[in-house]
Design goal:
The protein is mainly beta. Helix content is about 10%, strand content about 45%. The strands form 10 sheets. It has a 22-stranded antiparallel β-barrel. The protein has a 5-stranded mixed sheet with strand order 2-8-10-11-9.
């Protein structure tokens, strides 16, 4: 392998050595590999280390001169190998903008020959509290800075959504307004969460440098990753098994930890511009500054992003009328002109081409239902503008005491031309001067009417503001580190819906007897008085605030030395307080705006916890025997006490065994839990019971009279899970650049909090699947109890004896979900001549997702169905880099699946897209410090593949593609200039 020694020969004593090997692939499993580096001249040893690890190492000639490395032989993580290599030299390694910089330091652990940590800034890998150790037995995906740049993505959410383990269901800007499944309706501000394995955005814990940010959405449903500036991210670590024993609640599906560029040196300016075939623009600017000095460091980063709106008219499949694709006509029944429903229930279409001032009953169209495509004139995606500012600093107060601080502040504003969500049926009294009676009964008539021609389209707009700040004091005591720190976070969101109809003022305008001011709903809207139009113009707004405070005392270090290495431990105590408020300003239902808090939300949540984690090396480099090159065990446990739920205990076990060089076997087991969101604890404050008629193939009429239960059930409790994984990692020394990993996982998730309300029309059609939420032939006492409830509505006028079943669509603890599958990553990155080839494929295959609605109900396999993950998701890669030029292509594949929500069930095609990124560095000093200009051109969805057609329906609209498994961006091209100086 060829190396480049770069740097300016300022003097013989200050010459710099830079050893650079390009990143092996865009998505690297955090695995251990074989090292065999003899004790030798340190500069030569660092070259060999760089060759094996694929990491860039920068060292001053004067620092390494005359120093010898320790011997490194056996299987190590890259961090542990470097730590051992430097032991006894008095040198430490710092991660600076993607490179490892060797410097002098006060490294007690290194002097003692520690194999797990390298200096005071030793890396803490996600999934473990023990510095430098990494999560033994657990799979971790690490996406470094170079991989982010290779991908061509401009946002954190795009980068994370490209992971095969990610599922697009839940809270994202593409699902809002299209579906409420998987919790997509829990946000009104077009934020983006991450949903690992489809287990829910609230079951994936997001950390920023190991700290919980404030949450967004209804009740604190998700961490809004759209607020995090991608240019400030050093690497993204994704733990793909349960980690409640390490981090507490929410870490059921996994943990996403965003490590920021806290050690950045110099300055970096970035400009980016892109477009989706001219239909949607994308602009980005960022600036970073970093400065280090003896005993301290400071970094500040600013990013501005602006993404234009994507009009639904630009995408043929963004319609409610899906007949051109072979689907149904789901256009809104509220149109202009509208449709009259007479007192006997008969409908009459109002003819077009007239303003309603001279309409007679003879002009009406009996049996005609006028319709309007409510989505056609709306935006599919909103315009988004984001300002993000991040700053961090560290200063040595004494030789062993360090103060670390950071703050992240962000603001996101959005605006969207929305589809009309506030639909209003106009009940017209006989006193209205434009009243028309289709059947001569002289009774009020109902008109399904769209007010868009008068009010204009509904405008959805809002602002999200978030701040997260933390500070910590870290004291070295021998080889131990003790840290006392605290964190504060707040996220505040406001969502406004303008140009909606105020129903109270509409009733007054319809009852007006003056032809000059009364509201006319019998034409096309052209005859209404402007003052009358303004009188019914309303709005609706929500304001929610999530606050969190936390404090922690932590310590980690060695306990004793065994023949296999040091036994290390991490212990800690933490306190967390969370509070959530929700406020509405309703000018859509009352004569005057009503501003009121959301009643029923619980008070602040207090969580006290203690934890411990132990790493025991049974076999290591010093006592390896045939069949046991290395064997590590970990045991972790956490006890948490909630003021709302009481105490919970969660253990975790991990083991990693390396029988021979180049092969490692690993396994993990643990329990996890998720505490209910604040909004899931409001109980019957937001609940209602109503009579319905639903399809029932067992009846002569084809329908059944039922009571439907909707809203929230009382006494919702935490979700619980058992997770275990088993896998292997292969990196044969005989084939440099070849790496492979495979992980089998099993998640047994109990007491899932959810609702089947979107499927209530199918409850009696598919009795087997929904048996747990249907009570057939209910007792008279049970039925009468609902009839007597103040939450009961009876729009059909049924008597108690008419009720055939009770359908429970409330949000509550349902029963169980068990998911099993495999993750894999195969890569080969050899050096060919003076360049580096990079080939690989990563993916996930889900064997089954067995879902059981309630105890005793049958278990149904939902993998490969609509609203659930597909069985296969793959991302292939092929790249080449040489002399500052790089070309990388990615192939993304989502397997086809079944849409079971239509009759008959329909097969949905697979979706394959190709991404391409080209980059060239111009000028500068190359890899030693990365200075100079880098120009990049990237194309996502190179061949402009449309999403496969899916007949997607919600309670108020429809769509021709599935936003959970595809996106509507189309071919998106961007150019980017990065100047490092």
């Amino acid at each position: 392998m060829k190396y480049k020694f770069l740097g300016a020969m300022l003097s013989a004593s200050t010459a710099s050595i830079a050893i650079q090997v390009p990143t092996a692939h865009a998505q690297v499993q955090s695995v251990q590999q074989s090292y065999d580096i003899a004790a030798q001249d340190l500069g030569t040893a660092l070259q060999r280390y760089s060759q094996v690890s694929g990491r860039e190492v920068i060292a001053s000639s004067s620092i390494v001169q005359g120093k010898r490395s320790a011997r490194v032989q056996g299987r190590y993580s890259d961090d542990a190998a470097l730590s051992r290599l430097l032991s006894g030299t008095g040198l430490v390694a710092e991660l600076v903008d993607g490179a490892l910089v060797i410097r002098e330091g006060n490294d007690v652990a290194a002097e003692a020959g520690s194999t797990e940590t390298s200096g005071r800034d030793a890396i803490v890998v996600t999934g473990s509290r023990i510095r430098g150790a990494g999560p033994v037995g657990s799979p971790v995906i690490s996406i470094d800075r170079k991989a982010i740049e290779k991908s061509g993505y401009g946002t954190v959410q795009q980068m994370l959504q490209s992971l095969p383990q990610a599922f697009g269901g839940g809270v994202t800007e593409t699902t809002l307004g299209a579906t409420t499944r998987n919790g997509a309706g829990a946000d009104a501000t077009y934020g983006s969460g991450i949903n690992l394995r489809g287990l829910g955005t609230s079951s994936t814990l997001v950390l920023i440098d190991g700290t919980r940010p404030a949450l967004g959405g209804l009740g604190g449903a998700f961490a809004d990753i759209s607020l995090i500036p991608v240019t400030a991210v050093e690497r993204i670590e994704v733990l793909t098994d349960g980690a409640s024993a390490i981090y507490g609640a929410d870490a059921v599906a996994g943990v996403v930890n965003l490590r920021l560029r806290n050690r950045f040196e110099g300055a970096e300016t970035l400009f980016r511009a892109g477009t989706s075939d001219g239909d949607m623009t994308d602009l980005q600017f960022s600036q970073l500054f970093g400065k280090g000095w003896d005993g301290g460091h400071f970094m500040i980063a600013y990013q501005y992003s602006e993404r234009g709106a994507l009009a639904a008219a630009k995408r043929d499949y963004a319609r409610e009328d899906l007949r051109p694709f072979g689907g149904g006509d789901y256009r809104s029944l509220f149109a202009a002109p509208g449709t009259i429903t007479a007192a006997n229930g008969q409908i009459f279409g109002i003819p077009a081409g007239q303003n309603g001032t001279a309409l007679t009953a003879a002009d009406l169209l009996p049996g005609v239902q006028n319709r309007r495509d409510n989505r056609l004139e709306a935006d599919l995606l909103p315009r988004q503008r984001v300002h993000s500012l991040y700053a961090s600093g560290a200063v040595d107060i004494t030789g062993t005491l360090t103060l670390r601080t950071n703050i992240l502040a962000a603001e996101r504003r959005y605006r969207q031309i929305g589809k009309t969500d506030f639909l209003r049926t106009a009940t017209v009294p006989v006193t209205n001067p434009f009243y028309v009676d289709p059947i001569g009964t002289n009774e009020p008539v109902a008109v399904a009417y769209s007010f868009t021609n008068e009010l204009g389209p509904q405008i959805n707009r809002g602002r999200v503001w978030a701040v997260s700040a933390s500070a910590a004091l870290e004291q070295e005591i021998g080889a131990w580190r003790i840290q006392l720190g605290g964190n504060y976070g707040r996220q505040k969101s406001r969502a406004s819906f303008d140009n909606v109809v105020n129903s109270a003022r509409l009733r007054a305008a319809l009852a007006d007897t003056n032809p000059a001011t009364a509201f006319n709903v019998f034409g096309d809207g052209s005859a209404n008085n402007p003052a009358s139009i303004e009188s019914i113009r309303g709005s609706y707004a929500t304001i929610d605030t999530f606050d969190n405070w936390s404090a922690a005392l932590r310590a980690d270090g060695p306990l004793l030395r065994l023949p296999g290495g040091e036994v290390r431990v991490a212990v800690g105590a933490e306190y967390r307080r969370e509070a959530y408020d929700y406020f509405t300003i309703n000018d859509a239902s009352f004569l005057t705006p009503d501003a009121s808090p959301f009643f029923g939300l619980p008070g602040p949540r207090h969580v006290k916890s203690v934890y411990a984690e132990l790493l025991v090396p049974i076999f290591g480099a010093d006592n390896a025997v045939p069949g046991f090159q290395k064997l590590d065990l970990t045991l972790a446990g956490r006890i948490e006490d909630y003021n709302q739920f009481g105490r919970t205990e969660n253990p975790k076990l991990g083991v990693r065994w390396e029988p021979v060089d180049g092969i490692a076997l690993r396994a993990s087991y643990g329990t996890s839990f998720r505490a209910p969101l604040f909004s899931e604890l409001i109980g019957e404050t937001v609940a209602f019971y109503t009579t319905l008629q639903v399809p029932d193939p067992t009846t002569t009429s084809g329908v059944a009279n039922v009571i439907g239960l909707f809203g929230y059930a009382p006494n919702v409790q935490p979700e619980r899970a058992k997770t275990w994984t088993a896998g292997f990692d292969i990196a044969p020394p005989s084939v440099p650049g070849l790496k492979a990993s495979l992980t089998y996982y099993d998640v047994d998730y109990r007491d899932r909090i959810g609702s089947a309300s979107e499927d209530y029309l199918r409850f009696l059609v598919d009795r087997e699947a929904f048996a747990g939420v249907v009570t057939e032939n209910p007792s008279p006492d049970l039925v009468q109890g609902y009839f007597n409830s103040p939450l009961f509505f009876n729009p059909f006028g049924f008597a108690p004896g008419d009720i055939a079943a009770i359908l429970d669509g409330r949000t509550r603890n349902l029963s169980a979900e068990r998911q099993r599958g495999i993750d894999f990553d195969l890569g080969y990155a050899p050096r060919v001549g003076s360049g580096m080839l990079d080939l690989g494929i990563a993916g996930t295959h889900i064997f089954s997702i067995k879902r059981q609605l309630t105890v005793g109900a049958p278990s149904i396999d939902v993998v490969g169905l609509y609203a659930s993950p597909a069985k296969w998701r793959l991302r292939g890669r092929a790249g080449w880099s040489e002399d500052g030029f790089s070309a990388n292509a990615f192939v993304n594949y989502v397997e086809g699946y079944t849409n079971q929500t239509v009759i008959p069930a329909a097969r949905v095609s697979s979706w394959t897209t190709v991404d391409l990124t080209l980059a060239q560095q111009i000028g500068g000093t190359g890899g030693a410090d990365g200075r100079g200009l880098t120009l990049a051109f990237s194309v996502q969805n190179l061949f402009d593949r449309d999403p496969p057609f899916v007949e997607v329906r919600s309670s108020t609209s429809a769509l021709g593609y599935d936003p959970e498994k595809a996106n509507p961006y189309g071919r998106t091209a961007s150019i980017q200039a990065t100047i490092r100086w």
